[in-house]
Amino acid sequence: IIGTNADEGTVFVFTAFPTRMSKIIYQFLVWSFFRTSARKVLKMYSPLARRISDSHDPDYRQVLSRIIGDYLFRCPNQYFAKLLSQAGSRVFLYEFALPTRTPGF
User: Fold this and answer.
1) 56 DSSP assignment
2) How big, in percent rounded to 5, are the helix, strand and coil portions of the chain?
3) Greatest distance between any 2 Cα atoms in the chain
4) pLDDT tens digits for 23-54?
5) pLDDT value, residue 65
6) How far apart are CA 62 and CA 3, in angstroms?
């Protein structure tokens, strides 16, 4: 059994960036982290970024949190589960999605 939390990247991003994040800072960080793959990452998460940009007070920490959570936890877990399954193991994936009640997250 392999799993993640739904908002796995949130604690990292919101702790490192305690105030609202502008679009330019978000894009700069994506380019800094992913370099040659940044364009693909920005495109993949563009639907969420568009929803954020349409909001009253855009805060791109939410998009960066999703990217970081996927990159550090969700994608490696899914890859590992795939390898185990191909090797003949029974694999179960889960996502713990109970919303947090921690203020600011």
Assistant:
1) S
2) 60, 10, 30
3) 49
4) 999 999 999 999 999 999 999 999 999 999 99
5) 97
6) 21
Spatial contact of 45 and 67, defined as CB atoms under 8 Å apart: yes
104 backbone φψ class: left, alpha, beta (φ>0; ψ -120 to 50) = left
Confidence (pLDDT) at 104: 60
Residue pointed to by tokens 């349409």 = 54
Tokens of residue 22, six digits: 């502008």
Tokens describing residue 95: 């996502």
Q: Is-contact 77 2, C-beta < 8 A? A: yes
- Write down the pLDDT at residue 99: 78
Tokens of 12: 């990292």
The torsion region of residue 22 among left (phi > 0), alpha (psi -120 to 50) and beta comes to: beta
Rounded CA separation 102/105 (Å): 6
| Matching residue, tokens 């960036």 | 17
